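Q: Predict the assembly, please.
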Amino acid sequence: MGQHCKILDCTIRDGGLVNNWDFSIEFVQDLYNGLSAAGVEYMEIGYKNSPKLLNATEPNPWRFLDDNFLKEIIPEKKFTKLSALVDIGRVDPDDILPREQSVLDMIRVACYIREVDKGLELVQMFHDLGYETSLNIMALSSVPEKKLIEAFELVQNSPVDVVYIVDSFGSLDPADIEHQVKKFKEMIPNKQLGIHTHNNMQLAFANTLAAMKNGVTFLDSSVYGMGRAAGNCHTELLVSYIQKTSYELKPVLGIIEKHMLEMRQNWEWGYIIPYMISGVLNEHPRVAMAYRDSADRDKFVDFYDKVTSPEIALATASK
Amino acid sequence: MGQHCKILDCTIRDGGLVNNWDFSIEFVQDLYNGLSAAGVEYMEIGYKNSPKLLNATEPNPWRFLDDNFLKEIIPEKKFTKLSALVDIGRVDPDDILPREQSVLDMIRVACYIREVDKGLELVQMFHDLGYETSLNIMALSSVPEKKLIEAFELVQNSPVDVVYIVDSFGSLDPADIEHQVKKFKEMIPNKQLGIHTHNNMQLAFANTLAAMKNGVTFLDSSVYGMGRAAGNCHTELLVSYIQKTSYELKPVLGIIEKHMLEMRQNWEWGYIIPYMISGVLNEHPRVAMAYRDSADRDKFVDFYDKVTSPEIALATASK
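A: Predicted assembly structure:
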């Protein structure tokens, strides 16, 4: 099992949502070299959104990837391919070079179900520029079946290479994943599938295994799980577990030992009770993240009362 | 799903392997009251081994449970039943009162596959004294099928109520659990089944769900996962997840907030890289635990080299 799988490491991109992309160049280079030595197929090195469209006042190289900068950082490509993520309405087409002039190999488009048409327009553009592409459908746990069927009709006629199931809220379990994957496979049999999980209920790895078992080939993960709120499936677990002779665990252990323990001291992600609660309630972690930034951060009973009271539930639903 | 399940919380018993049972009476009482309010069916309040047989030089009330002491601590039973674990060769039959004179409701017998006959002798004795009983077969991931079939023949003729699948090394995945449960159900259809997991690969909760889905009814867990090495399936996850109107999450959150965060600062358990490695290698965590107690505790690459070198592998196998 797993012979045809590809691991896509999101440490920089999703982990940047934890620390506002406060990664040193040394760390990003060590990560790239380590993932290459480990045999990890892809590394998502950040977002390729437009600083202008986001009214950015400060530089943020991993949030606003620049091809010239990337070429300096990674002068020589090794085993691992590079990808970038873009958001609908935040990417400037003029920023995207043809693939042969770029260090990037793949551009992934994140979108909600209501924006699939816009997402696929971007995919078409990146595809025409020569990139591998994916469409990452977020918040899948809240998408009604009818909407998904409509979206699949558009996807089928698109050149997109990979369609991702994204459990943004960390609220799905392995049986849910199996159900979703079977639906995706039935309705878009001509596309490769991907999975992106969050660890709110300690199910990120198990959900990724369930997806793999059911034929998903693109597996997202992060080293030591670094990603927004509860974080992602751990890269070191996938590298250990998947029966593929090309994977080597030691380079990933080296990254954890050299960098991640200290980063975890400075920044917070992982299994933390308010994130567990937002996962159980199938809600965006933003309320829990704000709570963790407040003086009440460890008042779990109080947090649970707030997020399950009718008033708050209404306020959250209206967002 | 889960209507017929019972949660058995092992925080004191398995957690005691982390801190040498350094639990305050207040904590144990808060835990008992919280689990009762949460609707958790059983609490394992410690080991009922014999201090004499273990040559104990110091008192250790949760390791050597005493009925008179327990009656002082828990003068009034609430919803949650109490259980104790014993080990083969470490329990003195004279220490065990008839159930009607004891606060305990259940006695569980831990044994390796080679000692199943001795384990079932103890089970018979506890059963005759009026207790609910279980046989917990440890290190199941290393048991050859033939040995298991022999053990099942003995189990079938025993009055034991519950037979446990114990993933001592945290090395099984949900597919392994499903396979084991199906085998157990087929060969001992007249017994209830239990599951006890460890979280080395972040699969303790997923494995418990896989067991539940396949008909296992006794689910072991610990609050905040407190248990030896990588710890156990988290009680708060089971209470959140299982669709049973009798479970209440808030009392468990209260225990975590009041006690577990501070205990986790003082004692170490959970997903920690050397435990992940011992899980992946299907080995007892003792080598990893010793490493975590040394100055080299965070040298993960070095640890991996040591435990995967042929000499060490031999030394471990001979234990």
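Chain B has a mean pLDDT of 94. Chain B has two domains: 6-266, 273-317.
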